[in-house]
Amino acid sequence: MSFLSPLLRLENLSTEPIMSLDHVPEAQRYNKDNIVAQWCAPINGKMYRIELEHGTTSGRRMIWVNGREVLRRDWMFKLVGEDTFSIEQARCIIRVDPAPGFKYEYLLYIDGKPHAQYTEELTRQYRLWLYTCGSSQTDEADAPQEYRIMLKLDTLSLYVNDELREETAAFVHGGTDTSFVLNETKFVLQARSSGNKHDGIVHTLLANDELVPEAKIQQIMQEPVSILQTN
Would you say the pTM of this structure is higher than 0.90? Predict the structure, then answer.
Protein backbone atom coordinates (compact mmCIF):
# COMPACT_ATOMS: atom_id res chain seq x y z
CA MET A 1 0.00 0.00 0.00
CA SER A 2 1.37 3.35 -1.02
CA PHE A 3 1.00 6.45 1.12
CA LEU A 4 1.69 8.64 -1.97
CA SER A 5 -0.99 10.20 -4.03
CA PRO A 6 -1.60 8.21 -7.26
CA LEU A 7 -0.52 11.28 -9.20
CA LEU A 8 2.97 10.99 -7.70
CA ARG A 9 3.58 7.39 -8.65
CA LEU A 10 6.50 6.72 -10.98
CA GLU A 11 4.34 5.49 -13.83
CA ASN A 12 2.42 8.77 -13.78
CA LEU A 13 5.43 11.06 -13.91
CA SER A 14 6.17 12.86 -17.15
CA THR A 15 9.12 11.66 -19.17
CA GLU A 16 9.61 15.13 -20.66
CA PRO A 17 12.43 17.35 -19.32
CA ILE A 18 11.24 19.53 -16.47
CA MET A 19 13.51 22.34 -17.64
CA SER A 20 13.17 23.66 -21.17
CA LEU A 21 13.96 26.82 -23.08
CA ASP A 22 10.81 26.67 -25.21
CA HIS A 23 9.32 29.64 -23.35
CA VAL A 24 12.41 31.78 -23.98
CA PRO A 25 12.55 33.73 -27.28
CA GLU A 26 15.26 32.49 -29.65
CA ALA A 27 17.17 35.77 -29.55
CA GLN A 28 17.43 35.47 -25.77
CA ARG A 29 18.41 31.79 -25.84
CA TYR A 30 21.54 32.59 -27.85
CA ASN A 31 24.40 33.45 -25.51
CA LYS A 32 27.84 33.84 -27.04
CA ASP A 33 29.44 33.07 -23.69
CA ASN A 34 27.99 29.54 -23.80
CA ILE A 35 29.54 28.67 -27.17
CA VAL A 36 32.33 26.08 -26.85
CA ALA A 37 33.17 25.60 -30.55
CA GLN A 38 32.73 27.64 -33.72
CA TRP A 39 33.33 26.89 -37.38
CA CYS A 40 32.90 28.81 -40.62
CA ALA A 41 32.19 27.16 -43.98
CA PRO A 42 30.99 28.14 -47.46
CA ILE A 43 28.01 26.09 -48.63
CA ASN A 44 26.36 26.67 -52.00
CA GLY A 45 27.88 30.12 -52.37
CA LYS A 46 26.87 31.30 -48.91
CA MET A 47 28.95 31.60 -45.77
CA TYR A 48 27.70 29.91 -42.62
CA ARG A 49 28.82 30.25 -39.02
CA ILE A 50 28.19 27.04 -37.07
CA GLU A 51 28.33 27.16 -33.27
CA LEU A 52 27.95 24.55 -30.58
CA GLU A 53 26.74 24.96 -27.01
CA HIS A 54 27.69 21.99 -24.82
CA GLY A 55 26.48 22.21 -21.24
CA THR A 56 28.41 19.62 -19.26
CA THR A 57 26.41 20.32 -16.09
CA SER A 58 22.99 21.06 -17.58
CA GLY A 59 23.20 18.27 -20.17
CA ARG A 60 21.99 20.71 -22.81
CA ARG A 61 23.41 20.64 -26.32
CA MET A 62 22.47 23.32 -28.85
CA ILE A 63 23.61 24.00 -32.41
CA TRP A 64 23.33 27.44 -33.96
CA VAL A 65 23.75 28.38 -37.63
CA ASN A 66 24.21 32.09 -38.27
CA GLY A 67 22.62 32.84 -34.92
CA ARG A 68 19.58 30.61 -35.53
CA GLU A 69 18.88 27.53 -33.45
CA VAL A 70 18.79 24.36 -35.60
CA LEU A 71 19.06 21.67 -32.91
CA ARG A 72 18.51 21.49 -29.17
CA ARG A 73 18.69 18.57 -26.75
CA ASP A 74 17.94 19.04 -23.06
CA TRP A 75 19.04 16.87 -20.14
CA MET A 76 21.41 14.61 -22.05
CA PHE A 77 23.11 12.26 -19.62
CA LYS A 78 25.59 11.12 -22.28
CA LEU A 79 27.86 14.10 -22.89
CA VAL A 80 29.65 12.60 -25.92
CA GLY A 81 28.30 11.46 -29.27
CA GLU A 82 27.09 12.84 -32.60
CA ASP A 83 24.37 15.24 -33.69
CA THR A 84 23.25 15.48 -37.33
CA PHE A 85 21.67 18.47 -39.06
CA SER A 86 21.47 19.95 -42.55
CA ILE A 87 22.44 23.27 -44.11
CA GLU A 88 20.65 23.53 -47.42
CA GLN A 89 21.51 20.17 -49.04
CA ALA A 90 24.72 19.61 -47.06
CA ARG A 91 24.66 16.96 -44.32
CA CYS A 92 26.52 18.12 -41.23
CA ILE A 93 27.64 16.18 -38.16
CA ILE A 94 29.10 17.59 -34.95
CA ARG A 95 30.89 14.95 -32.91
CA VAL A 96 31.80 15.36 -29.26
CA ASP A 97 34.68 13.14 -28.14
CA PRO A 98 36.30 12.85 -24.70
CA ALA A 99 39.74 14.43 -24.28
CA PRO A 100 42.35 14.08 -21.54
CA GLY A 101 41.82 16.03 -18.36
CA PHE A 102 38.01 15.73 -18.28
CA LYS A 103 37.77 17.90 -21.39
CA TYR A 104 36.06 17.44 -24.73
CA GLU A 105 37.03 17.63 -28.40
CA TYR A 106 34.53 19.02 -30.90
CA LEU A 107 34.65 17.94 -34.56
CA LEU A 108 32.56 19.11 -37.51
CA TYR A 109 31.99 17.04 -40.65
CA ILE A 110 30.31 18.37 -43.78
CA ASP A 111 29.17 15.88 -46.42
CA GLY A 112 31.34 13.24 -44.77
CA LYS A 113 34.53 15.33 -44.78
CA PRO A 114 36.32 16.91 -41.81
CA HIS A 115 35.77 20.66 -41.68
CA ALA A 116 39.41 21.49 -42.51
CA GLN A 117 39.43 19.23 -45.58
CA TYR A 118 36.02 20.45 -46.75
CA THR A 119 37.06 24.10 -46.42
CA GLU A 120 40.39 23.54 -48.19
CA GLU A 121 38.67 21.88 -51.15
CA LEU A 122 36.03 24.61 -51.34
CA THR A 123 38.71 27.29 -51.29
CA ARG A 124 39.80 26.17 -54.74
CA GLN A 125 36.24 26.58 -56.05
CA TYR A 126 35.72 30.19 -54.96
CA ARG A 127 37.31 33.60 -55.12
CA LEU A 128 36.73 35.85 -52.15
CA TRP A 129 37.14 39.55 -51.42
CA LEU A 130 36.37 41.55 -48.26
CA TYR A 131 35.63 45.25 -48.47
CA THR A 132 34.38 47.91 -46.06
CA CYS A 133 32.52 50.96 -47.34
CA GLY A 134 31.90 54.16 -45.43
CA SER A 135 28.26 54.94 -44.79
CA SER A 136 26.44 56.88 -47.48
CA GLN A 137 24.54 58.76 -44.77
CA THR A 138 25.66 62.09 -43.36
CA ASP A 139 25.32 60.84 -39.79
CA GLU A 140 28.84 60.07 -38.64
CA ALA A 141 27.47 57.61 -36.08
CA ASP A 142 26.48 55.17 -38.83
CA ALA A 143 28.73 52.13 -38.88
CA PRO A 144 30.67 51.27 -42.05
CA GLN A 145 29.16 48.56 -44.23
CA GLU A 146 31.10 45.31 -44.58
CA TYR A 147 30.85 43.36 -47.82
CA ARG A 148 31.84 39.79 -48.50
CA ILE A 149 32.07 39.24 -52.26
CA MET A 150 32.35 35.65 -53.48
CA LEU A 151 32.67 34.27 -57.01
CA LYS A 152 31.78 30.62 -57.58
CA LEU A 153 34.13 29.52 -60.33
CA ASP A 154 32.21 26.61 -61.83
CA THR A 155 29.04 28.65 -62.45
CA LEU A 156 30.55 32.18 -62.32
CA SER A 157 27.80 33.06 -59.85
CA LEU A 158 28.52 36.25 -57.92
CA TYR A 159 27.38 36.61 -54.29
CA VAL A 160 27.48 39.71 -52.10
CA ASN A 161 26.89 38.96 -48.42
CA ASP A 162 25.30 35.67 -49.50
CA GLU A 163 22.88 37.34 -51.93
CA LEU A 164 23.11 36.23 -55.56
CA ARG A 165 23.71 39.13 -57.94
CA GLU A 166 22.17 39.27 -61.41
CA GLU A 167 24.68 41.53 -63.19
CA THR A 168 25.72 40.53 -66.70
CA ALA A 169 29.36 40.51 -67.70
CA ALA A 170 30.37 42.82 -70.55
CA PHE A 171 32.96 41.71 -73.07
CA VAL A 172 36.06 43.90 -73.20
CA HIS A 173 39.48 43.53 -74.75
CA GLY A 174 41.12 40.48 -73.23
CA GLY A 175 38.16 39.27 -71.16
CA THR A 176 35.02 40.47 -69.37
CA ASP A 177 34.04 43.10 -66.82
CA THR A 178 31.12 42.77 -64.40
CA SER A 179 30.13 46.10 -62.84
CA PHE A 180 27.90 46.77 -59.83
CA VAL A 181 27.44 49.49 -57.21
CA LEU A 182 27.24 49.05 -53.44
CA ASN A 183 26.80 51.97 -51.07
CA GLU A 184 27.89 54.45 -53.76
CA THR A 185 31.05 52.44 -54.42
CA LYS A 186 31.54 51.15 -57.95
CA PHE A 187 32.90 47.63 -58.19
CA VAL A 188 34.30 45.98 -61.31
CA LEU A 189 35.03 42.26 -61.37
CA GLN A 190 37.56 41.63 -64.12
CA ALA A 191 38.19 38.27 -65.77
CA ARG A 192 41.35 38.04 -67.88
CA SER A 193 43.30 35.21 -69.42
CA SER A 194 46.54 34.45 -67.59
CA GLY A 195 48.20 33.35 -70.83
CA ASN A 196 48.93 29.82 -69.58
CA LYS A 197 46.85 26.69 -69.06
CA HIS A 198 47.94 26.17 -65.47
CA ASP A 199 46.53 29.45 -64.10
CA GLY A 200 43.61 29.73 -66.50
CA ILE A 201 41.42 32.80 -65.98
CA VAL A 202 42.53 35.40 -63.43
CA HIS A 203 39.83 37.29 -61.54
CA THR A 204 40.48 40.64 -59.90
CA LEU A 205 38.16 43.07 -58.14
CA LEU A 206 38.34 46.86 -58.31
CA ALA A 207 36.53 49.27 -55.98
CA ASN A 208 36.45 52.84 -57.31
CA ASP A 209 39.33 51.84 -59.62
CA GLU A 210 41.46 50.57 -56.73
CA LEU A 211 42.51 46.94 -56.44
CA VAL A 212 40.82 44.96 -53.65
CA PRO A 213 43.18 42.27 -52.32
CA GLU A 214 41.90 38.74 -52.57
CA ALA A 215 41.11 37.05 -49.25
CA LYS A 216 41.07 33.42 -48.20
CA ILE A 217 38.06 31.65 -46.74
CA GLN A 218 40.14 30.77 -43.69
CA GLN A 219 40.63 34.50 -43.10
CA ILE A 220 36.91 34.96 -42.47
CA MET A 221 37.20 32.67 -39.47
CA GLN A 222 39.33 35.36 -37.82
CA GLU A 223 37.06 38.25 -38.83
CA PRO A 224 34.50 39.86 -36.50
CA VAL A 225 31.26 37.94 -36.22
CA SER A 226 29.37 40.73 -37.99
CA ILE A 227 30.83 39.79 -41.36
CA LEU A 228 29.35 36.31 -41.02
CA GLN A 229 25.85 37.42 -40.17
CA THR A 230 22.99 36.66 -42.54
CA ASN A 231 19.47 37.85 -41.84
Answer: no
